[in-house]
Amino acid sequence: xxxxxxxxxxxxxxxxxxxxxxxxxxxxxxxxxxxxxxxxxxxxxxxxxxxxxxxxxxxxxxxxxxxxxxxxxxxxxxxxxxxxxxxxxxxxxxxxxxxxxxxxxxxxxxxxxxxxxxxxxxxxxxxxxxxxxxxxxxxxxxxxxxxxxxxxxxxxxxxxxxxxxxxxxxxxxxxxxxxxxxxxxxxxxxxxxxxxxxxxxxxxxxxxxxxxxxxxxxxxxxxxxxxxxxxxxxxxxxxxxxxxxxxxxxxxxxxxxxxxxxxxxxxxxxxxxxxxxxxxxxxxxxxxxxxxxxxxxxxxxxxxxxxxxxxxxxxxxxxxxxxxxxxxxxxxxxxxxxxxxxxxxxxxxxxxxxxxxxxxxxxxxxxxxxxxxxxxxxxxxxxxxxxxxxxxxxxxxxxxxxxxxxxxxxxxxxxxxxxxxxxxxxxxxxxxxxxxxxxxxxxxxxxxxxxxxxxxxxxxxxxxxxxxxxxxxxxxxxxxxxxxxxxxxxxxxxxxxxxxxxxxxxxxxxxxxxx
Length: 515
Ligand code: F6P
Hints:
single chain, 515 residues, alpha/beta, Rossmann fold, 6-stranded mixed sheet, 20 helices, 45% helix, 11% strand, binds 6-O-phosphono-beta-D-fructofuranose
């Protein structure tokens, strides 16, 4: 085991603690020419503006010193060279590998995805009753749901979407029953997305869908054409009844929350076309190149991570909010929740010691302007410090000019109101201001730009993990709950009386169960 690293033991951490005692206000930073010179960053059609922060050039330099004292450089090199940086699972981390132009050109699975997409779109591959496919039901949970669902919603377009996609995640049977009620089995493709092909929710929903197909379609070999699997566990998918040529595999080094770039993205390709999926991958790759090579002070993911560390570790923030001003991005906060919180919700360092500092921030959010009429009150006048990311788009061909202008004006107004505040005669109408926010502005919601945006947040999370010296790529914390659900199901485990009483209330007492 290597030498333990605690960021909290570095000189930079101590310097930041001292600096935090007299942190400038957002208003001061807005007039600080030295900081403002550093506060606008760009990559292709994506601009990051960090003007409105409790920040100065000195604080920023101290944050960079903290980054340089951390294992960041070594880990970033390991990420791109395929080293086993996911040390608790003893494997490399492959999501940047599978979006390189070289991989896109040569990977046989991607070629199969392209061909499968074409056969479905052209109608060459039909269902068991010779009708073309019109609906996709993507069954998966966590990364096998949130990524493809978010991208499908973001890129859905009346001129280019070819099939209607539905997503089912929850083990709540009412969800799949509702979705299936709105589909015709003769024209529906069931896509089972599960890295492990062992996830309880996904398998139960897949069984429901398989029974639904069997109940309505003739018993012929063509019936298997309605089932597709996206998984690393091909044998399990075959055992389930998926035809081997309808299984799209991916590698173990692709983590669930990073898997939309892999064959888990098949549903994106089926909805929006293979070229759209490919362009999304290339957008992700553009951000990878930037992250790997741009100088640290101008490196977008680095700058965003430094902000999170500054507010979380030195100014007492517990959460961060993301507000996209675009309704088609309404699932982006939920996607980021898994990306950020499953990656950074750790309290053990890479060397196996307890952290003595706060790690991941609670990530939440909703689209603007909707959020303005719901929780923004707390942001403007509440007692919590919540750094915000506003995400905006310069144009939106699916909107109208006046509506889109109103949307952008609202974004700008919120940044200003939060930063500057306003003193009122009545204390109830007093706005303290000094609330920090970043603005990410993109020219339009294109596949390439969305690819860059997702990869920006992936790498932000990576940088935070390096500074906090935690492994961003495992998720042991979710295992205990799964194991207990199984143990309850089997009637195992001696329960403390209060827990037993709760199980009784939930009608989970074995003896009370209906036959
Ligand atoms: O329980 C958490 C988790 O393992 C996520 O990390 C993952 O994205 C999700 O479950 C689904 O897993 P699978 O794709 O193997 O069904």
